[in-house]
Amino acid sequence: MTRSATKDRAATSWRITRCAMRLADEHGLDGWTMDDLAEAAEVSRRTLFNYFPGKLDAVLGDWPGFEDEMLAEFRSGGPHHDLVLDLRTLVMPLLDAKIADRAWLDCSKRVLLASPRLLTVAHERYEALSAEVVEHILVREGATFGAAGAKVAIALLAALFDAALDGYLHDEGQHDFVHHFDHALRTARTLLGD
Fold first, then answer.
1. Of the candidates 19, 42, 61, which is a domain's last residue?
2. Are residues 83 and 46 in the same domain?
3. What is the pTM of this model?
């Protein structure tokens, strides 16, 4: 697939997900059909099913993977030679489009909290991504670091993300998400005596 085709596919996928999230916010997860989504996203039903097999996947959207170059740098100990900072650098590009829009994040939070089924699937995706990152941490830090240590690092990252998200959503546009994440990271380091 060419870079242009990949970009077009990503844009269509994102448009479908935004429409699915809006429909779920306005009507609940069971208050709309895939036909409604195809119409809202201005795609054919066939195209819609080429992107997503059902509502839950459409609302959650595609979860991007790590870029090979960034992953290789992380696994070799970079770019900062600090595990938590390097995890931050690795994960931030995955959130790029979604963290730029406060209204989108606020809507996402409402929809997730309103649907236990959706929350369960999101948690399953998070667990799969976490398991992948644990493996990358173990390659980077070595087997003596241990899976338990890697899981603590992931849990810390998730807590920092949650604190940053809360700060970002209540900041009324003063600072970007990265500012709030870095503030949460500095606070955690102070609390942990690092």
1. 61
2. no
3. 0.84
**Residue span of the structural domain in which 122 resides:** 63-194
Q: Check whether residue 32 and residue 95 sit in a common domain.
A: no
Distance between CA atoms of residues 180 and 168, nearest Å: 6
Which tens digits make up the pLDDT trace of 150-177? Answer: 999 999 999 999 999 899 888 877 888 8
What is the structure's pLDDT at 99?
A: 64
- The CATH code of the domain that includes 70 is 1.10.357.10
pLDDT digits (tens, 9 = 90+) for 103-144: 888 899 999 999 999 999 999 999 999 999 999 999 999 989
Q: What is the pLDDT of residue 98?
A: 59
- 42 plus 4 within the same structural domain: yes
